[in-house]
Fold this protein.
Amino acid sequence: MAGRFFLVILLVLAAIAERLWFDLGPNVELVTLAGVVSGMILGRKWGGVAGVIAMVISDLVIGNTVIFWFTWSAFLVIGAGGEWLRSFTGLGRIAAGGGYGLAAAVFFYLYTNLGVWLVGNLYPPTFAGLAKSYLMGWPFFKIHAASSVLTLVAGLTAAELVGTVFTASKSWLNLTIKD
């Protein structure tokens, strides 16, 4: 179990570092990966907490707006949902992770753009204003969706390989997930 917590801490630190020091590009982030993999290996509570911790710490440095309630709670839900990936193994888990990455990006886009419309004062409080919020967010969504799929597939592939190697050698890390 200690190995799993260590991995979660590394993932959260990587997500924070990516946001603060080595930005991978606009709307490319590791917070989703940290939350989802944490949820997968430690359960829904830790998955949600991991993503939020990464956001809170990095937002304390780079700042945020009133929309933070929507971004933080979106990552809480996305990370908690990572527990669902426990029901898959091997290539099935990697494929499901790619699908989950796309679903997470869609949820994030719909939810946070609703938040921008509700509290951001950027768009009028009309259906046309809501539609404009989604239209203006579309270019960001495309990049976020592709990067979420790619980072989750890459991260889950690495987790499967590491888990297989360490399980075979009976290491302390033991990433094999058993209910």
